[in-house]
Amino acid sequence: MGYSKDQLLARLKELQIDFSQYEHPVVLTVEAQAKYVGNVGGALSKNLFLKDKKHRYYVVSALADTKVDMKVLSQRLGLGKGGLRMAPEEVLGEILKVPLGCVTPFALVNESASHVSLLLDKGFKTQERCIFHPLSNDMSISKADKPSSAVQNVKEKSVNGVRPSIPSTDAGKFVEELLDRTSTLLLSEISEDSIKRHGGQLGAEVANNIRKCLREDLKNLATIVKNTAYTEGFYAGTHYQPKRL
Prior knowledge:
The protein has 245 residues and is an alpha+beta fold. It has helices at 5-14, 30-37, 70-76, 90-96, 147-157, 171-189, 192-198, 202-239, and strands at 19-23, 45-52, 57-63, 84-86, 117-120, 130-132, 139-143. Helix 3 (70-76) runs antiparallel to helix 8 and helix 6 packs antiparallel against helix 8 (202-239).
């Protein structure tokens, strides 16, 4: 069961993420959405749910006036010219937990979408406010912060309410804290008692314990690096202009 619109809005308020909301009739396109919220001041977006040949999924969010060239984007992501295509409509409900016309970066808050990569147009960084559907296309919300930070905050603090102790927005600091934690774990595992208990197997025992403790942190770091690369590739893809011969 995925998040509902009301649950998402409640979660945003709980996390003290400020936003403005605008109710309107159901809309299926960004052009229809613009008729109701185009005058509130903010950047509208077009949102696509894509997949590649290896059945990896992507939510691509671009500024409304940006042309998304999937062939170029596929090349920039190292997938070849035909590497990306629209995901089947039936998996929208299965993975993103939203119906047709409701694709939004906020859908990644759902646990079922934890493996989906988010590709954001770099142009959002220059926008004062960004407008997205909150999992339902009968409402739009205007967010003053950049969309990636809002989605990340919701994802980090949702489901079980446990927030990672290592910062996910600063890779350098992340690595330093990982090294510090590794050192602390290593020292804590090696004691007179542990040497007596494990003897010649101490090295393997310590390695296994450190692996268990750091697995999630390393996966988090890998996801950050991957999404950063995808986002930069998306920006290059949407702004790439081939030279004319």
